Model the fold of this input.
Amino acid sequence: MNKDEIEREIAEKGDNCWDNIGVFGNITCELLEAYEHCHNCPIYLFAGRRLFKKEADEALIEDWTKIYSLEKETDLQNKRSVVLFRIQNEWFAIDTGLFQEAVVNKMIHIIPGRSNKYLYGIVNVNGELYLTIAMESLVGLDRKFDMELNSKQLLVLNIDNQKYCFPIDEFDSVKNIKLSDLEEIPQTISKIENNIIDNVFKTTHKSKINNESHTIEIVASIINNQKLISSLNRNLVW
Done:
């Protein structure tokens, strides 16, 4: 979708369409079928860029100066920021410090003689080639993704200064979790060899069922950063 097309869509749908007909509204936007979430839509990204280009007035600068001069809330020290996503029917989370971006509709190319249970192949993101990893294999799920098809959504992570892509089924959002809400992983998971799950927590997710928005409670597993790195080093042996 080019700039002219985006501007026409904005003119038709109105400003802040994500709050009216998008995932934060009545979920009637026809573009959701292609992009699944407003965060992935070029209209949403265009609006964000336009906001950053807008010149700030003196009143806004004064307000933000006051906000930044305030003492930081100690409550933030008792929280953990994670990115929430779904693979098959399971929800997972990973620290936002590793999160680079979420991209859509990218073709994954296999590497002859190298693609295997853990490595799908390579993908081009913004002109750079990244290894594409089967996260489901790392977390103990059966691999079901068809490499001959476009990946609807890819999670790009920066791990030890190396960027990797992970095909996922759904990207939700960033969540700030209270450390007190973290729970121990079930024994069925802890006994899995080379398990990379750290903790689990309960949260909510907005789901679209029969064109109606529903908020459901889910349980997500947090991926341990160091265990993920060790698993990648162990399984991506060339």
The mean pLDDT is 81. DSSP finds eight helices and ten strands in the chain. Helices lie at 3-13, 17-20, 32-35, 42-53, 58-69, 135-138, 187-190, 225-235.
